[in-house]
Amino acid sequence: MSEKIKEALLREVLIHNPALFYTSLRSPMGPPITPFKHQFQPLYHAMVTRPVRILIADEIGLGKTIQALAIARYLELRGEAKRILVLTPKILREQWKHEIRRVGGRPNVIRNGSEVERALRNTADHYTVVSIDLAKRSPHREKFLDIDWDLVIVDEVHNVTLGTQRYKFVKDLIKRRGKNLNVVFLSATPHRGDSKDYLARLALLDTTLTKDYQKLDKPAFYRKTRDTLVLRRTKKVVNELEGYEVFKKCYFGAVVVDISDVERAFFNELDHVLSEMLKNAEENSPVALLAVLVRKRASSSYEAAVKTLTKIAESANSGRRGSAQKVKEYVEKVFGLGYDEIELEDFDEIDDFVNRIIDEYAAFLDKRQVMALERILRLGEQIRDNDSKLKMVAEIAAYHIKQGEKVILFTEFKDTLDYLRRNLPKVLAEEHGLELGSNEISVLYGGMGSNEVDSEMEKFEKSGKLLISTDVASEGLNLQIASVVINYEAPWSPIKLEQRVGRVWRLSQTRETKAYTLFLAAETDLYVLENLYRKIMNITEAIGSGPRLGRPVFGKQMLEGDFEALWKEDAEGSGSLEEQPSEFELVVASIKRELSGYAGAIIRTLKNLRRNLERVIPADTSKQVREELQGILNPEEFELEHVNEVLRRYLTEVLDKRDVPDISRLLFGVVKNGLDDLEPVRIGVKGLDGVEHIYLVRVIDPESGSDLHRYPVLVRMRNGRWELLYGIKLLEHLVELFSREFVIMGRPKPNIENFTVTGQLMKLAREGLYSIHSKYRDYESAFTRGRLKRGRLFKNIKIEVGNVLMQVEGVSERAFNLMKYVPGEILDIYGLSEDDVEAPTGEYERLMERNFVPLEDILRSEKKAMEIIIELEKRRLENQYGPDGEWKVEDVSLHEHYDIRVVEPSGEKYIEVKGHKPLLLNAEITPAEYEFAVRHKDQYWIYIVANLGGKKPVILKIFRPFESDTQIYAVIDGKDVDITGTVGIDVKTKVRRVLKVI
Length: 998
Known about the structure:
This protein is α/β, with parallel strands linked by helices. 43% of the residues lie in helices and 18% in strands.
């Protein structure tokens, strides 16, 4: 059996099985991909429904990106997605580029407006990655709308809110292609408290939904969208599905850092000045905005504070005044709930935005306010060399690095990052004896080139011990190679804290995770710790190292808790504040000492987010996920080790691949070119009991007739019952089957049990493989009847069982020895039984290939064959032209590069004759004979006369044997029967060319 068919069978199973597909997803150049069971579920949905319209709403750290790319790669390999658009926050572009390469895709990242036109000239077979805020702007939006995208992926889709440019742009993209467009949305927090906004996003996925969102906002609608439009899984589900603690514990610690008198004086004076600035300032005024920025920068580092205060002093007297009306817009851009919401399209880092705001608004400060800030500036300059927080960070980092752990130090600002990069290594060396070389410290910040990011990430992975990163650079990156996170400044938003921790507390994290947030023992920080953090978090006093944690208490005081249960369900002093507070409001309230009502508001916000998520998208349980996947997966496919072992055996024993340390790279090579059209084949296996058939079960689009999904299933009778093998069980069986001796016997014969078999396969398809489609059918019918939909979105499907792809049958040893050399169809064509032929032997074939001088019986066979063909041609010509016609048949074998010349009125014909005593359909041609055959291709024939030792000879005539349009005829009762489509020709070039009928 040809290697092509063996590989094609493996390819069919790999591409169309959601568990096995993940084993082939990793490109040879990418880091490993570990498949997790929950990730199979959205791919399964995408395999059997069209269009693909899905929101993957998993918790942070469950691998939503790789799930989206598995769907994209599947559609790409099937030829359904040539133009793929990825819309993402700017800060996630590089992460998407790396992940696309990891699965073998070709990313085309657009970094600024000047690259749009060039990039969009070449979208075919590419993943075009662009920030949604760049793509939504004119004139770029029109250029994106002009492309016929096949798949659109929108990351952090909760930022695509109703009534915004982002929403209108995505809506227009989907409208442009209609139901032909595949769409994948990703978000860990798809519902932000506004049901209308959430439903509007679902209406982007299903454009047939009514715009009367009040009618949709019902439990019945949400039940039907679960596991159709929306999938959501949690860390708990992943742990239960895998059967072990995939997500190990994550501990949070709030560390209080003692400070010097100079530092305390700095913060006391800062607190006083900022309070005075806000006394008479309006809520969204330039002065209030500047006060908040100064407070945030001072909370980050003295370096950032000094730079900001210096900038204010320099700009205050410039006379430049920006529009006060834009303050609200700036507040919305800089103070979102999460880093992914920040719009920084024109800036590399938030620091750049801060400087722009200062340039526009410093002149709004009066002379007294400027002088007060200058006093603080002078205090800040005095303590640069005696930074208590820097020393505490060094202590925590040194402890964990010495434990063999990698540490990530997060800061919000690039200025603070630069300060840490310069000064932290000195403190580590001088106070902790920890000398870190340049290859052990990595940095990430906005504006770095792709090569720089790649270099720093590679360094951190291979030899790094410490990574210093801003949020803008790190958001979206997979950093689970580290297990310790230190927040140099306390994030004001719980969502931002979760995002930072989510960089390391995610799939493939092998250690317990620790996250520290630093607070200074200054009144300003302690007020925030007591009135915000302690009220919203389940954190308690740490009293020393112990057997459970095995860690020391850092700082003057440390509060700690389990990150899985970090947020309180209730808060003391909740107050009357009902609105979801912004970070801007929280900072203002902290300066005014008015945080008391905000803790309750934040708790309510967190509870509402969770409650709304559970109401509209209750997370699947591990039982539900497993039961759904059991439709298409065998129980063995839930066991990664077993899957890998069977695939390794198939690669080594069936495809003869050797030295396979990493099967995923070889499997990627098997599927990388997509699907091919499989030629049905019949094989005979020596010693096999019975007959087995492999069918392709197909899911078909009735409108176009095209396959949506197809799956090979082997059918055999065992102990009086039908047995159906597919997926890994099929591959396991094929490994055993192909380990025996087998031969190709031609094309499958009609299966007399086809009707019964088809019934079994249809039952398997409906009740198992494609049972999931009933959810989509119910979704469509329920809301069409209720007039909540205007027509269908998802295609109807038709399940069909195709013709036999492979017929496997047992054969006797005698028949097997014959069929090793003769196509099975030949016996049928000539009406011969096994008793009618002399079977060739391996020794006979080897002698034929090696010997220029014929053996005696070969010589006799050649002579007999010449006599038969000369007589055959004479009879043909005599019947056609009469005995006295102008024709001639002559033996020219002794002086030409062929054997018989035939001259007739229509022209000359040159015949090469090959004779064999056994039924061997081979012809060996010398280089000179080959050159003659090619030169005279329109007149050249090879006649094979075989089975001269059997009951009757077998005569095959081959016209133009070395051309692509070869024709083959069987001579039966003196007449030519065209069998070109039944058998073929295989030509091997050695010293001479060996032509073999197969």
